[in-house]
Structures are given as structure tokens and as C-alpha cells.
Amino acid sequence: KNQVEQxxxxxxxxxxxxxxxxxxxxxxxFSNLRWYKQDTGRGPVSLTIMTFSENTKSNGxxxxxxxADTKQSSLHITAxxxxxxxxxxxxxxxxxSTLGRLYFGRGTQLTVWP
Amino acid sequence: EAxxxxxxxxxxxxxxxxxTLECSQTMGHDKxxxxxxxxxxxxxLIHYSYGVNSTEKGDLSSESTxxxxxxxxxxxxxxxxxxxxxxxYLCASSPPNGTGELFFGEGSRLTVL
Lengths: 114, 113
Known about the structure:
The structure holds two protein chains of two kinds.
Chain A: E1 4-7, E2 10-14, E3 19-25, E4 30-38, E5 45-51, E6 56-59, E7 62-67, E8 72-77, E9 86-94, E10 102-104, E11 108-113
Parallel strand pairs in A: 2-11
Antiparallel strand pairs in A: 1-3, 3-8, 4-5, 4-9, 6-7, 7-8, 9-10, 9-11
Chain B: E1 4-7, E2 10-13, E3 19-25, E4 31-37, E5 44-51, E6 54-57, E7 65-66, E8 76-78, E9 87-94, E10 103-104, E11 108-112
Parallel strand pairs in B: 2-11
Antiparallel strand pairs in B: 1-3, 3-8, 4-5, 4-9, 5-6, 7-8, 9-10, 9-11
């Protein structure tokens, strides 16, 4: 069964600290892995997209890694800011159909305290 | 910032009412999607469209219907709303080429009393 599991479910850190969010997946055949940031009451916004051949991609203070062998990804946030408080969603796409079906994780709720 | 718009942002209605959630994008994207999201849960695809006059049901069964008469417009309709339809509805679009990156609207929060 194709699944995307994220951990931790929630995380609280102090402003300025770093943190790492985890994503494990069982989706096969794998096509791409995406990380989205979703502020409360808003739509998700794309942070990174990685294909099978990429093992790291950065977007400012956000760095995503991908290990396609172990089917794991992480999102590292450096020097956290209050505006980083949001839900971070891991999404894995397959290539088993023309649609390229997407499998969504439930997200990690990050809270950054001053 | 993505040019995809949803209205209304918030809607509270009584059971049995007909509602239409609007979604418009100005990016010329051919693919559009409707997702349903409950608090703390993953997004579920309920409808998608590959272009004008093309609509398909998604993974999650939904009593809603959609239409795609124009490329930029993808409205979702509930003929008779029920409390079980209370949820967040997210519209998204993606361009014809590239990695299929999704651009989401801000969402429509529907509450049915």
C-alpha cells in the first residue's frame, strides 16, 4: 500500500534554532517528492521538488534531502523564524499512470516560539 | 505568488442548501484539481480536470460535482449540503510541462449547520 508517514506529528522550537522534519514513504514506482508549507487557514505553498536523481535541494533556509534507497526524506530548517510556524507536508508522486498520482502525508505542525 | 483564487474563503450555510465554490487561475494552466482537507489530516483528491470539458473523479468519493467550461475556471457545486460536507476545500492547478508542481488557492472553509 502506498503511504507517506511524517514525523514528528508536532514540534515546538525556539526562534533561531534549527530543526529537521522526517518523511518516510512506500510509494512505488517513485517519481518525485515535494515539501509544502501550509500556514493555518491558507493553501499549501511549494518549498522543494526532488526527482529520483536528486538527493538534496535548498530553498533559502529550507534544505530537503532524499534517500531513494531507504525511501526517506528530511526537511531541515535553519535559523528558524516566527514565520516558519506552519504545517509542513510531504507529498510523493508516482509514475505508474499518466496522472502521476500524489500521496500526501498528514504534515508536521511546527511552532516557533520567541 | 500563484495567481489562483478561491471564493468564498468562508461559508456557513444550512443543511439542504445548494452551494458553489469558485476557483479561477490566470496562469493558463491546463490541469486543475479540487482537494478536501480536514484538520490534522492529509489532502484528498476529489476532482480533477486536464482541460476544457474534461473532468474526472478523484480518489475520495464526493457528492460534489465540477465543470470546466473555460480553462481558467473550475467551480465545485454541492446540490444539497449536509453537515458531513463541512471541510476545507482547496483548489490547485499545474502547468502542462515540467514537474507538475501544484499551485494552490487559499481554500474555502465550508461549514454546514
